[in-house]
Amino acid sequence: MRRTTRGVCALGAALMLSGHPAGAAIPRPLNVVPAQGLSDAATRVLISGEAFEPGARVSLLGGGPYVAGGFPLTEGARAVEVTGHHACVAYYDHTSKLGGIQILDVTDPTAPVKIGSFETGDSGVGVQVADHIAYIAFLNPYTFLGGMHVVNVADPASPLRLGTFYTLSDPQAITVAGGYAYVADQYEGLKIIDAADPASPIQAGSYDTPSSARDVEVAGGIAYVADGAGGLQVIDVSDPNAPSPAASYAPAGIDLAGVALSGGYLYAADTAAGLLVFDLADPRHPAPVAQARTADAANGVAVSGVLAYVAGGASGLEVFDVSDPLHPRPVGGAGQYGNSGYFFGVAVSGGFAFVADLVNGLQVIDVRDPAAPAPVGGLELTGGVGDVAVAGTDLFATGGEEGLRRVDLSDPAAPIASGLLDTPGTVKGVALSGGIALVADGLSGVRAIDTADPSGMSIVGEIDTAGDASDIAVSGGLAYVADGPQGLVILDVSHPVAPARIGSVDTTGTARGIAIEGRYAYVADDFRGLQIIDVTDPAAPILAGRYDTPGRAVGVAVEGSIAWVADLNRGVQVVDVSNPAAPALLAGYGTPGAAGGVAIDGHRLFVADGYAGLLELDVTNPAAPVLTGRYDTPGAAGGVAFSGGLVFIADGGGVRVVRPNPGLPPPDSVSTFEISQTVPAGFTPGPYDLLVTHPAGETGSLRNAFEVLGCGSGQLSLRLVPTAGTWRLELEGDDAFFSPEPRHEARLALPALPAAIDVRTASGRSAIDLRFSPRGDAATVLLSGRDPAAMRSLWDRVVASGGIPLPRLDARSYGDLLMDLLAESARPRRYRFEFDAGVLVSARAWGAGADLVFEAEAVGAAGCRASGSLSFKEAR
Q1: In the 8-state DSSP scheme, what is residue 14?
Q2: What pLDDT is attached to residue 712?
Q3: What is the pLDDT of residue 21?
Q4: How far apart are CA 296 and CA 302, in angstroms?
Q5: Cβ(207)–Cβ(185) below 8 Å
């Protein structure tokens, strides 16, 4: 973990807030009761708050981590160390020409307060605190000489320098172990400083790594160095005066920036590959076991419990579940508004992540409930994905220089890459027509690709459009191409083997996206906004009108008389095109990311919003869009398509599949201080932010206010497994029934008893011997054991519950039991259950129709129940 990952250097926090009309009442939701509901049942909630208005709408947006506070530094921060309620932030300010550390009180993580500082003319680049001593790695911004300050911070308000070590080259990160400071010193490799005498630190040893040492962790006499292109360098530092190489991992293309140790594994941040996991079963020879891609450059990593937190550059903080280190799973993320931050390092303490944001300073992110609702499925693809198109169970994704990719969606939860066709150019857009995929192939024009054969794709036709084919739409045997600087190009593709150019019109900007509605083509023309072109005569298209949007128009969707324009950092522009000659703006909707693609489905608009993921807007009233859904995706969402109730997203490094949650109906009632709202069944389990939107557009929200709990399949699967002469009962089902602790019980069911029962007691081994009469209308029970009263009490409990409890072995199994079954038709039924210290150890059954039946019940944390049963007769 990069000391930039331990320390967060706070830069000026620049959070963009939604504007509200002057004097408008801002809704203030304060509480939701109940705060939880089940995914398979409707829940009625009461929202208490202030300033609610008639006509207010309630939305549930995917929750998870969120920026809760920060501490601004005008020129950024490089590292942070969090100890108890104090954070030390390494920074530099060119205006004041002071740097070092700021010491913050983070008792309230949402509002850090400066309580002290240690400042010199040096730039603080790393910090670690041990026993009230801060070790500050620094670099002088004018002499370019580095070193380490040793500072007593026992009194945070009055730090006292104890000593300084001056001969570092370009320190990047620092860690302290056993009286030594270990510094990742960029191109000078690893430096080890003896700080036993804080007033006179001296160099003990050094090791020149092959590339650029950027982070270091030390454990058990081993230093693990993130060495950039030199990969992971493992160095024996059992003698700090004479470090020696132990191993290295440096495949081509690696660029390690940060490392963290946790639970026998090493987690590394690779700026190109994302999160890497190494098994430390042999600490001197880490074995790579897993990788999880991040949306942007992974610069630092910290691990707390079963979660890994990655500082992911412009994408913000990315959170991975590493409860199974071999299969890290993204569960949530948080960044700055409009991708306006750059997360460089992260430290975690007390349910909060403290992030070094190189643009805005210290960001404090609430990660107490990090698992935001996840997409239905996803597929990582090399080369990146910019656009998607769907037909039936096939998805076609543009892979840039990689070509056109085909993905099998037979199971949307587990998409499978089923084909790849390399094209001469750079695939940027795709449209489907019958069994033909028409591809906007960049500077190479348009390619017609036969997709009829599921086992392969082939180019059957092509044409050079002269520009930079970036997007394509098909209607009535014609293809309309957004051809970059050449504007709109119209092709006859009725015979795909010989596409022919029949018309064009040069737009004033650079054509990036296109949509067709009626007799008009709508072109997203980059800096020139929306261009509307009359294509009644395809051979002579005419510019009918234009609307210059405030941002960069890169995508467009049209339905009826409304055009929705993806305008990058200016969000979505809603344009009335009922009069194409004079299009008029209805609304500008600012999104938190960069709107790169839009898709319309009735009253729902889906927006691919860069690192903010997928947004869903209710556009029943186009002039007043209401945010009704937010789905965080791991990458940078740039293209979007809707088909069959699912949304498909080109997510930078792959394809994501999202099943939108059901829309919330209008509130049951609204008063100034309370809203009654029904949340329908069907929401994906996870935490949700609650948003209240007034008719005029004012909004108020409450973070992670409502949690939807999943009930899984509602079934338990039972099986009996033979184990060296005995039998074991094993359970399978939803993980919620087994983790973090087992929430289930199993029993051996008691056979149905007749009304006439004669209960007797006797000495001997503890047992229940149940014998039925030949006709089955009466039974005798013999209870044997040293304590007749205890055996009678056991029998009464068995009768009341309908079965004998089984001894639990572990989180998923019960046993072991000796069992026998002799279903002889000539003899009456008999059952014998033997016990040891009150625990069932043996079960036998004889006679006509005799069987041993096992039953299990589970109750999840959400109150969801599941059950299952198994007959020994069937299982044998």
Answers
A1: -
A2: 54
A3: 55
A4: 17
A5: no
Give me the amino acid identity at 33: V
* Cβ contact 79:9 at 8 Å: yes
Helix (H) or strand (E) holding 573: strand 572-576
Tokens encoding 476: 């009535």
What dihedral do alpha carbons 500, 505, 508, 514 form, nearest 10°? -60
First to last CA, the chain: 53
User: For residue 521, which of 549, 489, 567, 548 has the smallest C-alpha distance?
Assistant: 489
Task: Tell which wins on pLDDT, 875 or 636.
Answer: 636
Closest to 687 measured CA to CA, from 441, 372, 452, 382: 372
> What is the C-alpha to C-alpha distance for residues 439 and 425, in angstroms, rounded to an integer?
10
Rounded to the nearest angstrom, the gap between the alpha carbon of residue 758 and the centroid of all alpha carbons in its chain is 62
Q: Which of 142-151, 225-234, 367-376 has the highest mean pLDDT?
A: 225-234
Q: What angle do CA 799, 805, 808 make, to 5 degrees?
A: 175
Distance set, CA 764 to CA 397, 761, 782 (Å): 74, 10, 11
CA distance 585 to 403: 37
HEC-encoded secondary structure of 650-676: ECEEEEEEECCCCCCCCCCEECCCEEE
**Which amino acid would we find at residue 643?**
S
Residue type, 183: V
Res. 345 pLDDT band, cuts 50 70 90: very high
If you average pLDDT over each of 71-80, 253-262, 682-691, 866-875, which comes out highest?
Answer: 253-262
Q: What is the DSSP string of 56-112?
A: -EEEEEE---EEEEEEE-TT-EEEEEEETTEEEEEEEETTTTEEEEEEEE-SSTTS-
Query: Is residue 732 left, alpha or beta, with left meaning phi > 0 and alpha meaning psi from -120 to 50?
Result: beta
> Does the pLDDT of residue 206 top 60, yes or no?
yes
Q: Give the span between the Cα atoms of 178 and 184, in whole angstroms.
A: 17
> What percentage of the chain has pLDDT greater than the value 70?
96
CA atoms of 864 and 762, how far apart (whole Å): 43
- CA trace torsion 328, 330, 332, 338 (10° rounding): 130
Closest CA to 819 of 729, 746, 726: 726
Name the residue among 130, 142, 141, 134 with its Cα closest to residue 118. 134
What integer pLDDT is reported at residue 14 of this predicted model? 28
Which of 362, 4, 30 lies closest to 174, judged by CA?
A: 4
Report the pLDDT value the prediction gives residue 75, as an integer from 0 to 100.
Answer: 86
Model pLDDT, residue 862: 55
Grade residue 634 by pLDDT with cuts at 50, 70 and 90.
confident
Q: Which residues are registered as beta bridge partners of 626?
A: 618
Kindly state the percentage of the chain with pLDDT values over 90: 80
Separation CA 281–CA 263 (nearest Å): 10
> What are 602's two structure tokens?
């009735």
pLDDT > 50? residue 780: yes
> Are β-strands 429-433 and 436-440 bridged in parallel, bridged antiparallel, or unpaired?
antiparallel
